[in-house]
């Protein structure tokens, strides 16, 4: 590969879902010591050939233990991944699951092999873990946004994350993604008020010796971009793509169709006024979050009782990665990376980590498309 092509290599950003350790809120909500490993272990196959329950090669480990995270970091870095983007949960100062990052990743002896950043999962905290079918979900914590609360978020991140030498920066800014970006802007008073708040935050960061923010918005459609650009966001991304058509079938979505929806989405986002980090979805199967006694196919679509993506072989995943790299490198807006769903969301069927039936095949696909020797210089 020519030097000019190597210089354009986008960073590989794997979403990290931090729900595989015991934490106080989880114990209060679901029982002492509960983790999502419980749902994974009790999952049942829903149809012939359904690969459930999944069997992680490493077993059920505690990702708030730095010794375990050290293995994850080496595995990811050795296969071409550059950044872990941690799902981060903050509810007016109440935090959930931050132990995976703060006690695990940030205390790992080899943490300098990867960068990290945050995606604020600013949705309501709802019990979607084997809920009763057809019944209202229990909301554990509601999400609310205000100028005061956002400043508290920034204060916390300055103290705990932004000064870390391996916090991911994009175009000289601290990359920070917002999951429900439109709701975020609306509750902050609209785009003008949000933009003014962002400018004040940058001024405060400068007084601490930090660069400005690079706000990233999770979006599904190009028509969402103008308001977010006006608000001060600097890029867009998407969490995942799990359907091959606007209306999901009662049972299956073919991965080849999902692949085309990815390509269509990247193409639709490229002409917008913000660079878009193309997403690549490894898979989708939330049946481990469903009660085993609810029959398949599910009587109606209500998360997590929804359709499953099938045919997501490592070979097809590798092809989609190649398509994403070609798209990113040809995009005149030069997106800083591609995002992969997901490093470890086992109970939604999105994982790169080794599993008994496929081994390291999905990681090998990443390595084939983004060889570690091409990693950008630190």
What topology emerges from the helices and strands here?
Layout: H1 3-7, E1 11-16, H2 24-30, H3 37-42, H4 66-78, E2 83-91, E3 94-96, H5 99-104, E4 115-120, E5 125-126, E6 139-141, H6 147-162, E7 169-170, E8 173-178, H7 181-187, H8 191-207, E9 213-218, H9 225-231, E10 235-237, E11 252-254, H10 255-269, E12 279-281, E13 308-310, H11 314-330, E14 337-341, E15 344-345, E16 350-351, H12 361-369
Parallel strand pairs: 1-2, 1-14, 2-4, 4-8, 8-9, 9-10, 11-13, 12-14
Antiparallel strand pairs: 2-3, 5-6, 7-8, 15-16
Helix pairs in contact: 8-9, 10-11, 11-12
Q: How many distinct domains?
A: 1
Shape type: globular
Rg (C-alpha, Å) = 20 Å
Number of strands: 16
Helix content: 25-40%
Poorly predicted segments: 1-7
Describe the structure.
By secondary structure, this protein is α/β, with parallel strands linked by helices. It has a single domain (3-374), classed as TIM Barrel (Alpha-Beta Barrel), CATH 3.20.20. The chain is built from 12 helices and 16 strands. The protein has helices at residues 3-7, 24-30, 37-42, 66-78, 99-104, 147-162, 181-187, 191-207, 225-231, 255-269, 314-330, 361-369; strands at 11-16, 83-91, 94-96, 115-120, 125-126, 139-141, 169-170, 173-178, 213-218, 235-237, 252-254, 279-281, 308-310, 337-341, 344-345, 350-351. Strand 9 (213-218), helix 9 (225-231) and strand 10 (235-237) form a beta-alpha-beta unit. Helix 8 (191-207) crosses helix 9 and helix 11 packs parallel to helix 12 (361-369). The chain is globular, with a radius of gyration of 20 Å.
